[in-house]
Amino acid sequence: MSRVKRGTISNKRRRNVLKQVKGFRFGRKSKERMANTAIRKAGQTAFRDRRNKKRNFRGLWNTKINAGIRPLGISYSKFIGLLKKNKIELNRKVLAEMAEKNPEILAKIVEKVK
């Protein structure tokens, strides 16, 4: 049986691993074993935070809506309840954008649901 030299494969794997940790600090950017653990950890936090981002944005939209409708004399929870009661299906993202950029349209919606 002929001899197989494995250097090229392991070098390729090492090169790909170190390419992924470019910009990391200390030994994690240059040592293969530390780089592997850093990649695994980075992947876990990236996965978790892609889901947390959705949570954070929903909270931000709620805050923007509340800030937009408070001067109109209604609280956020009552406003959302009235929207559901009147079967107005606008999502929070759209309502937050209205509160920020078009407060006059939001005022008309508030008057309609009151």
CATH superfamily: Ribosomal protein L20, C-terminal domain
Largest sheet: none
CATH class: Mainly Alpha
Spatial extent as radius of gyration: 26 Å
Strand content: under 5%
Poorly predicted sequence stretches spanning 5 or more consecutive residues: none
Tell me the quaternary state: single chain
Form type? rod-shaped
Total beta strands? 0
CATH architecture: Orthogonal Bundle
**Proportion of helical residues:** over 70%
- First CA to last CA: what distance? 86 Å
CATH topology: c-terminal domain of poly(a) binding protein
Structural class: mainly alpha
Q: In DSSP terms, counting alpha (H) and pi (I) runs of 4 or more, how many helices? A: 5
Mean pLDDT: 95
| Helix/strand order, N-terminal first | HHHHH
Count of domain modules: 1
Describe it.
By secondary structure, the chain is mainly α. It has a single domain, classed as Orthogonal Bundle (c-terminal domain of poly(a) binding protein). It has 5 helices and no strands. Helix 1 packs parallel to helix 2 and helix 2 packs across helix 4. It is rod-shaped and about 85 Å long. It starts with 6 loop residues before the first helix and ends with a helix. The model has no long low-confidence stretch (mean pLDDT 95).
